[in-house]
Amino acid sequence: MAHGLRNLMDTNRLVRVLEAHTPLCGLIAQAAEFKSATVTRKFDAVWSSSLSDSAIRGKPDIEVVDHSSRLLSLHELMDVCSLPVIYDCDTGGNHLQLRSTVRSLERAGVSATIVEDKGGLKQNSLKGNMPGQLQLPIEDFCAKLQSAKTGQRNSDFMVIARIESLVLGNGMQDALTRARAYLRAGADGVMIHSHHQDPIEVLEFSKEFRRSGEKAPLVAVPTTYNAVNEETLFQAGVNVIIYANHLLRSSHKAMKQAASSILQYGRAAECEELCTPVGDILRCFDT
Description:
By secondary structure, this protein is α/β, with parallel strands linked by helices. It has helices at residues 2-9, 23-31, 50-55, 67-80, 95-108, 138-151, 172-184, 200-211, 230-236, 246-265, 278-283; strands at residues 15-19, 33-35, 40-42, 45-48, 85-88, 112-116, 118-120, 133-135, 158-163, 189-192, 218-220, 240-243. Strand 9 (158-163), helix 7 and strand 10 (189-192) form a beta-alpha-beta unit.
């Protein structure tokens, strides 16, 4: 599985990844397909999101749910979904904790993990530059990456460095400097993050990153800048796009509306349009 994802990322094509926070989400991601006369689109991998894993447990996204608990859920996901899994590792803790987590992920059959270069109190990056969020010095994060890569046993497993420079207001040059340093330290790719609705800074980073001739995988997560299309990101140099929380958010909205409708009308008829027919749910598990 890890070998397959690495091969995908090394090809000259876009890799699409969809968040899956339950085994049912994994089945949905695996079965989803769009076909027209000229194109067929499917998801290539699934994303194990720390935001989603925290939210479904009713917890804040501040690394309060430990990796051991999340790994138990991953086993259930991978039992029914054959797509490669990319794991959101948050900060990964200190270098020894990160090394241990990488080994656990390898044993579980996960294909890659993404580790962010923050320190201090972890807050979700989509909040922007919140008090208490710090970016580790470059040399410190490089040491964490080196520890993780030294500890892994499967050469196909990928450790991808997530750069928070644009979120924390540290600028484009800092982001590019970090990208080059992290790759030299052994990272298998980089993810550039932004919380702005305009994709201009992500596109600028991607073009500058590729202009130097860098071939490593480049990951983007267009959650806030969702109006940009895949082709624009791909032409700028992004080759991995993660739709990081869309199954969580769409289900959350539908569940809230269904609960309110039942209370409002004193029956379930009015919320049926929000619900998948029971027969369709049962057919998900037909063998």
